[in-house]
Amino acid sequence: MSAVSNFSCRHCEIRPAFRSDNRFGFVSLINQKHSKLKVMRPSLQLALNHSRRASISPSIRMTMVDERLADMIVVVKPSDILVYDLVQGADVSWSHILDKSVPEPPTAVLLHGILGSRKNWGTFARRLAKEFPKWQFLLVDLRCHGDSASLKKRGPHSVASAALDVLKLLGRLKLTPRVVVGHSFGGKVALSMVDQVAKPLARPVRVWVLDATPGKVQAGADGDDHPAELISFLKMLPKEVSSKRDVVNALVQHGFSQDVAQWVVTNLRQTGVVNGASLSSFSWVFDLNGVSDMYQSYEETNLWKLVEDVPRGVHINFLKAERSLHRWALEDIRRIHVAEEQAAEEGGGVEMHVLEDAGHWVHADNPDGLFRILSFSFQGF
């Protein structure tokens, strides 16, 4: 099979090196001298932290990571794109990113939803890595979220720009994912990643869209949590608060559920320490103005064209949470089933799945069921 020399993204230049076995990795901006580092597989984990002021050939500082996370994680955090964790199975060589002589392991990307962070996927990713030790799992903080909020990304803050960030990160790391999983907002980001990459793809990729549709976001019924209203309410709060409990109480009194209130305050961090004692003040880790723009983009972004004309080699899986009723109009479900039939005839793939006994927070409501459904994407390696 002849090698293809160029691979382009519609909005950026990312050039991969194709190999004879039809596997490729994006060309990295990391200085090639890193590939000369001695290859090791220590029993402890290593964190490679890149300085924010790093040049084209940044220095690398290695530090121990908490052993309690298990013997399967390598964390590499280039600060100019997105902050991320790379969770690796026991059979993956940790040095692949720095040493291209090591075969590229199969990679899955896990994307969080609005007001979330990469930590939402931490426990689930470690479970996957334990069950599928040949795989590695890339968890990112999307722009304006988590630790990536400090990177001050240029606007517009949208589904498309969030997807482009992830594509650029994959280019930096020389990784080409076989699986991309996105929850809610992250589901549309996953679809946008496929939409922005030039076709045809060099090898098949499975995309999982968890409890989100390709088009219009349905309004919630009374008693449901409304993300737009939640963001607006959070913007009215001070940037620093003295108590997480006070924020939880305020959210519940305003009509949001206890579960959502408890989840939101995981985005509060203590501001500092004085004389060894923790300060009784907390600040938000996300950029609420940027998050607000991103959610508006999520409501407006329409990717039905991609779903109804799936590129060859792409398999798009929609997962509907059984108890997540308002997010799914009957017309959405009908169009997905029509796309299933059409894709099967044209060599692509679209499938609809239902996760029983779960609301919108699928990886928290029914992690065992979600694990079983996703698992077949990682088999055979």
From TrEMBL:
Keywords: Hydrolase. Belongs to the peptidase S33 family. This is Putative alpha/beta hydrolase. One of its GO terms (molecular function) is hydrolase activity. It comes from the Eukaryota. InterPro entries: AB_hydrolase_1, AB_hydrolase_fold, Serine_prot/Carboxylest_S33. Residues 109-371 form the AB hydrolase-1 domain. Its EC number is 3.1.2.2.
